[in-house]
Design a protein that fits this description.
The structure holds 2 protein chains of 2 kinds. Chain A is 31% helix and 22% strand. In chain A, helix 15 packs parallel to helix 17. In chain A, strand 1 and strand 2 form a beta hairpin. In chain A, the strands form 4 sheets. An 8-stranded mixed beta sheet of chain A has the order 6-7-8-3-9-10-12-11, with helices on both faces. In chain B, 69% of the residues lie in helices and 4% in strands. In chain B, the strands form 2 sheets. Chain B has a 3-stranded antiparallel beta sheet with strand order 1-2-3. The longest helix of chain B has 39 residues. Chain B starts with 5 loop residues before the first strand and ends with a helix. Classes of the chains: A alpha/beta, B mainly alpha.
Chain lengths: 675, 475
């Protein structure tokens, strides 16, 4: 680049000191950001991307120190500025927004006051001019009814709205550079699409540069011009988005792409990266990725790879590119054989009767008010859901957070008490069983949870945790048999039986999720409710877990109720899909029906909002405005009509009946009458 | 039976104290085999203030435990029959024998050689004079008290100090050798590490606390056999002896009352949080009601009832010690019953949070019984709160005893405690000239005990509170 970059980072090093040797969280990171450009820093959790951002702002926690390097903003080295001058840089020239908008706002100050604080700190404005500027900023972030909202408190706003307020604060003084640290990770996909579009427009209108930190390649493809991939504290590949997405060079970047469920065919295994990120307190002599790399060369572990040009401005730090710039692109190993098997298995399973039938399931949570705790209303978390789950198949349940999908899973397991409806399992109504009979049937249905850290008791050893279900449900004859079963289970989920005596804190998220799967399998269930089992995991670990779940299904003929908000995971896993909105199913059918030819406007906008990991992909046109309404007081008629772009008048008054569109496809919308 | 010239007497509080010691030893053995239980304690041992407080606290505990081994000595045989004394003594009494038996007539100031009040004395020649008589024991070895007293005190104090420092030095050398052997380095290097505070366990702080202890205790130990270091009280009893005896009373109250309170708080708190709904409502009403009644009122009522019971059934309680002991237990029970609400509320909140966690949901999905879920999944995960509450409440209860005994509804008046010492000081302070040493001694001892307990509790809280630990690890 001929022009001088806005931000120039050279050999930035940050260490975290604790017990033991220092952790080199950022280890020699260099990059440039030009004015008005979006630079994406991609990587899995723990690779040092957030630490890089905090180091730029000099907002590191006490235990971390910057040990070397240069950070130049417009030619001025930020690392040598005194703290008093650094405060002027923060906010005025470089602003930052964080992942969790709920934690970044002060709950006892109105949002107007919080924005005004940042305005008056960094500009000469005062009095009424500040107020005017605050409203102007809120308008700029497309806050509806800005003049009224300035006096509201953070708790009155939804997650997306709070993130808009954070962006407004960041924009208060027209910063030259905006650092966005996972700005949309905590948001639903529809809200994420709104916020990303807003950021893109603001950047264009303000001519602001942006450092976007994310783990989501889809977001990168939609937003960035330049991209850098981080691994174990250093950047391993950098280049323009177009060339990077066309041909990622570093084996790690390739693997990241291959582990995306949407890239693999439904019937293929996902490419998973074996092993885990090496601990960063280690001293590296060679390539940090060598031990997990499938194309490792003899000298990879011993020699540090240099930067090699692989294309137009596209560089990678890998020995593979030492001689020839562009080798033949190594393709992912074909897993088509396995794919064929899966397909055959599927065909075989077709036609058998339903394993579990959910009929008109209702879960209402009472709202109590007043001195006597009288019930004054209900949160209709699940409001008449009907589902069929077939043996050996996967039903995907999709929806935004708060739509009640998790409550369906817990309701049919009776982990929350359902208000009405039936759950027929092997002919008996699961919901009508008494405590003793219920206990006997608990063997048939198990559950895997979202958070691998909360799903294992930190005080109970792995072996004891696995034995719990066996003991409670009387599986296995005697202690020796139980231990044998536990060993077999651990082997089955790809762990060594030796870990029985260890405690959960010694395991990574992916390993814990494997243990949780083993625990669910221990009582040999027929159906497993998978409640967002991979949403807390990195994409490469997600691939391992999804592969494992698919293999177990194949081998044991398990049925899954797979709950997720991630469309591509659902697409990969599910045979049938049900889309949920505000406690009800709005569209249901085979995966091809629902995801390839969606008929309900909600399903259509949900699919449109997913950022595709491909910068060439057409920008979706269907934007979903607003947020999910409250299930205490659902809108009249079709629950979706206030947000629906194509709503007609009677949508507001009549709840639509189920329209059967084909043998397998059902939608609840007035507009998709079969004609 | 004639083998031993004494008979052990196990008072109720002794039994409970030793049970507690056994329980703590059991817990230590259990925890040392489990890394997640051992980790917070090793964090405590790495805190400099914590380890210094532990040294001071250990000294108090030692005194308290010595005072919890009671026996009745064999009386000299009369008519060939063996009989044991009716008076129950403790090991501490045996150690402090000289202090206990060397009684004066009435008040005497610290390190004095004469009584604090003038008396009419008959001179050998038959004349009567009013002057301050010599003490029977304090400074009795001096020929000319006015001339020799200051020199004698200085000499003895200095000698005591020297011996104490010598002992301290021996301990330090032993520690250095132990550290050197542990970490496999030379003694010099080990000493260097300790001195510069580079050891994992801050031994420097422990040695510092020990040095302070030695500097204070050395001269006191050297002077105590010949003087009344803290003076004497109204009936001429040594105040230092009283202060040392008070330690046990305070510690018994502090520990046993928490022990009584614990089952209430644990069972009710966990049940309220776990079952929610009706059960929660009932338990909440119970503790809201209980905490709205003034605690002193309840305690006063209960103690007075107990007193009446003891008086009406005198046959059940043969000696004054046993009577005082039963009253002490009653006080512990009452303090425990009235003080569980705070911990209960904390545990309820934590359980409310825990019961929604996924491992508990997973246990429900296996049909694991409520009882088992509470025992296995909830209890171990609230133990850090219990541990913090235990050490924090201890000092509060020691202070409560002092207040209650001062008001007159605390321990039996015959039992020496900080409260009874302060109570008697009420009149002494109103006297002219004022008698201040009783109060001062109680104040100094109680301050040292409670301050050490509080600092130790702080270290324990820092080590056990998961939020603080995580913040420290992330920072």
């Amino acid at each position: 680049m001929s022009t001088k970059p806005l931000l120039r980072v050279r050999d930035l090093r940050t260490q975290i000191h604790g017990d033991g040797p220092p952790v080199r969280a950022v280890d020699g990171v260099s990059f440039d950001i030009a004015a008005g450009e979006t630079f994406a820093l991609v990587g899995e959790s723990g690779c040092g991307k957030s630490m890089t951002a905090l180091s730029l702002m000099r907002l590191l926690p006490d235990a971390a120190t910057i040990t070397g390097g240069v950070v130049e903003l417009d030619g001025q080295n930020l690392l040598v500025l005194p703290e008093s001058q650094m405060r002027d840089v923060r906010g005025r020239r470089v602003a930052m927004i964080f992942q969790e908008p709920g934690l970044s706002l002060n709950p006892v100050m109105t949002i107007g006051a919080q924005i005004a604080e940042s305005v008056s700190r960094h500009t000469a404005l005062s009095g009424a001019a500040v107020d005017a500027r605050v409203i102007e900023l809120l308008d700029a972030v497309r806050m509806p009814d800005a003049a009224r909202r300035v006096n509201e408190y953070p708790f009155q706003l939804s997650g997306g709205m709070k993130q808009r307020v954070m962006i407004a604060m960041a924009l208060a003084c027209d910063p030259a550079l905006l650092i966005a640290d996972e700005p949309t990770t905590a948001l639903d996909v529809t809200v994420q699409a709104q916020v990303l579009e807003l950021l893109r427009d603001l950047q264009r209108s303000h001519g602001m540069a942006m450092l976007l930190i994310t783990h989501d390649l889809g977001v990168v493809a939609q937003m960035a011009q330049q991209v850098a991939v981080m691994y174990a504290g250093e950047i391993i590949e950098t280049g323009p988005v177009q060339t990077f997405f066309k041909g990622p060079a570093h084996p790690y970047s390739r693997k990241l792409f291959d582990s995306l469920p949407e890239r693999a065919g439904r019937n293929r295994m996902l490419a998973a990266i074996p092993g885990a990120v090496p601990p960063l307190h280690r001293l590296f002599t060679g390539c940090r990725f060598a031990e997990r790399c499938d194309r490792v060369l003899p000298h990879c572990a011993g020699t540090l790879p240099a930067w090699h040009v692989v294309g137009d401005e596209h560089e990678a730090r890998c020995h593979l590119y030492a001689e020839v710039a562009a080798q033949t692109a190594p393709g992912a190993e074909s897993t088509a054989d396995q794919g064929a098997q899966i397909a055959a298995r599927r065909a075989q399973d077709e036609g058998s009767g339903a394993l579990l039938q959910v009929k008109d399931l209702q879960v209402y949570f009472p709202i109590r008010k007043g001195l006597l705790q009288r019930v004054s209303g209900h949160v209709r978390a699940v409001d008449g859901v009907t589902l069929d789950i077939f043996p050996g198949r996967t039903l995907g349940l999709v929806g935004e957070s708060g739509c009640g999908k998790t409550t369906v899973g817990k309701g049919l397991l009776r982990l929350v008490a359902p208000t009405g409806g039936q759950v027929l399992l092997g002919g008996a109504d699961f919901l009508a069983l008494d405590r003793k009979a219920l206990r006997a049937r608990r063997r048939d249905v198990q559950i895997i949870f979202q958070d691998p850290y909360a799903s294992l008791n930190p005080r109970v050893r792995i072996g004891d945790a696995l034995e719990e279900g066996l003991l409670a449900l009387g599986v296995g004859a005697g202690a020796a048999d139980r231990q044998q079963r536990i060993d077999a289970l651990l082997t089955e989920v790809g762990l060594s039986p030796d870990i029985k005596g260890r405690y959960p804190h010694e395991f990574s998220g992916g390993q814990r999720q494997r243990i949780a799967i083993a625990r669910a399998l221990s009582v040999e269930p027929q159906l497993i409710v998978c409640d967002e089992p991979t949403s807390a995991l990195d994409v490469s670990v997600q691939a391992q877990i999804l592969n494992l779940l698919k293999r177990l299904q194949r081998e044991k003929g398990l049925a899954y109720l797979f709950i997720s908000h991630n469309m591509s995971v659902i697409d990969y896993m599910a045979d049938e899909v049900a889309v949920m909105y505000l406690g009800r199913i709005v569209e249901q059918g085979s995966v091809d029906d629902v995801l390839r030819a969606p008929r309900h406007p909600y399903t259509q906008s949900l699919l449109a909002a997913v950022p595709a990991a491909d910068p060439q992909a057409a920008r979706p046109v269907l934007r979903l405005a607003g947020d999910l309404p409250s299930p205490v007081n659902p809108p009249s008629g079709c629950h979706f009509h206030p947000r629906c772009a194509v709503a007609v008048t009677h949508c507001a008054s009549v709840y639509p009946d189920a329209q059967r569109l084909s043998a397998t496809h059902v939608a609840r919308c007035h507009l998709c009458k079969q004609d | 039976m004639t083998l031993f010239p004494f008979r052990f007497e196990l008072l109720w509080t002794d039994a409970l104290v030793w049970l507690l010691v056994a329980a703590i030893a059991g817990y230590a053995a259990y925890a040392s085999a489990r890394p997640h239980l051992r980790a917070p304690w090793s964090r405590v041992s790495r805190s400099a203030s914590g380890i210094a407080a532990a040294v001071i606290l250990a000294t108090f505990v030692l005194a308290g435990l010595l005072d919890s081994v009671h026996y009745r000595p064999l009386l000299p045989p009369q008519d060939g029959k063996l009989a044991y004394a009716t008076e129950v003594r403790s090991l501490l009494d045996r150690v402090l024998e000289p202090l206990r038996v060397k009684r004066e007539k009435t008040y005497s100031a610290p390190l004095a050689t004469h009584l604090y009040a003038k008396e009419t004395l008959q001179l050998p020649d038959g004349r009567e004079v009013r002057e301050f008589p010599r003490l029977r024991h304090g400074g009795a070895h001096l020929k000319d008290p006015a001339a020799d007293r200051a020199g004698d005190i200085a000499l003895r104090g200095f000698r005591g100090l020297a011996v104490a420092l010598l002992l301290w030095f021996t301990a330090a050398v032993a520690l250095g050798a132990a550290v050197a052997q542990r970490s496999g380095i030379g003694i010099d290097a080990a000493w260097n590490d300790i001195w510069r505070g580079r050891t994992a366990v801050p031994w420097r702080a422990a040695l510092g606390a020990l040095a302070v202890l030695a500097v204070i205790a050395g001269p006191v130990v050297a002077l105590a056999p010949h003087y009344h270091v803290f003076g004497t009280d109204k009936v001429g009893q040594d105040v230092l002896y009283q202060a040392l005896k008070s330690i046990r009373t305070g510690m018994v109250i502090g520990t046993l009352a928490t022990l009584v309170m614990l089952p209430f708080a644990l069972v009710l708190g966990v049940m309220a949080g776990y079952f929610k709904g009706r059960v929660d409502d009932m338990i909440q009403y119970l503790y809201t009601t209980l905490s709205s009644i003034p605690g002193v009122l309840l305690i006063a009522a209960a103690v007075l009832m107990m007193q009446v019971y003891i008086e009406n059934h005198a046959a059940l309680f043969p000696t004054t010690e046993i009577r005082a002991d039963v009253r002490l237990i009653a006080l512990c029970v009452i303090l425990g019953v009235t003080s569980w609400t705070g911990l209960c509320r904390l545990l309820r909140g934590e359980t409310l949070k825990l019961r929604e966690l996924e491992y508990i949901q997973a246990a429900h999905a296996f049909g694991v019984s409520h009882w088992r879920v509470m025992m296995r999944h909830v209890m171990p995960n609230v133990m850090h709160i219990v541990m913090i509450a235990l050490v924090m409440d201890f000092s509060g209860l020691v202070l409560a005893e002092a207040v209650l005994s001062y008001v007159g509804v605390g321990v039996d008046p015959s039992m020496i405690s900080f409260g009874t010492m302060i109570n008697s000081a009420r009149l002494e302070m109103a006297r002219e000239p004022m008698v201040w040493w009783s109060l001062a001694a109680a104040f100094v001892f109680m301050l040292a005990l409670v301050l050490a307990a509080n600092i130790f509790a702080d270290a324990v809280r820092d080590a056990f509170d998961p939020r603080l630990v995580r913040a420290g690890a992330a920072a």
